[in-house]
């Protein structure tokens, strides 16, 4: 019996439901997915249930407090993301070609990249590309695009059918408040979910224990360091510009990380994405942290 005969139909018959699947895969909970779509949990649940019936197999399994896509769903999600990206590309190119309409672009990056590298040059983008509407999204550890059109992350992406390019690199060093010392043995670090980050690993190695104070951003760490007199491992892009901080040069250790810019391969010819990517590269080239290489393709895994 074909899917049409048994009444279930196919995913293409329920294409509008695919955005609910994407939202749940990206957000992890029904509540967060509903909020992102401007609807309610009951609607999300109903649409996921309809897609599940169409696929004749579970698409999500609940683990802990979140929903995880099954292997079958992951194939559908990749297809839906490809379609979503292609539609966005064609819409953007139409707007840019005729010079009318606005092209929304979502760029995800860590707060330190946004504040230190991108924001000082946002005026250039607005002046040269008035049809773009850029939304900057805080994303400290980007492992994929999610809902973003482009993202900047620490380290080379490993998978995801991406066009990727190294755009810069920065060293992380221990810093101390100049002329002030807090309690011996204490230090300021990032929140515990970032304990695997190279800067946090370096901090644990130097100070031999968990941080006395934890923060969710490097800029917040600086404030805590000044208030307490405690040291911390922060990027030079933050520490070097603050006259109240002093870099520990000898015996402190260091780690260097690369900045990578990436977007989906289906957006290769998207004029709005390309304009934004070119602007990001120029933002980095205007700093001491530029380390630009040619584009490479990252395969799906």
From TrEMBL:
Family annotation (InterPro entries): LysR-type_TF_proteobact-type, LysR_HTH_N, LysR_subst-bd, WH-like_DNA-bd_sf, WH_DNA-bd_sf
Transcription regulation found in the keyword field: yes
Residue stretches making up the HTH lysR-type domain: 13-70
UniProt GO BP: DNA-templated transcription
Coiled-coil annotated residue ranges, if any: 73-100
The keyword Glycosyltransferase belongs to this UniProt entry's keyword annotation: no
Assigned keywords, A-Z: Coiled coil, DNA-binding, Transcription, Transcription regulation
Pfam families: HTH_1, LysR_substrate
GO molecular function, one term: sequence-specific DNA binding
Residues spanning the signal sequence: none
The family this protein is said to belong to: Belongs to the LysR transcriptional regulatory family.
Name of the featured protein: DNA-binding transcriptional LysR family regulator
Species in which this protein is naturally found: Hasllibacter halocynthiae
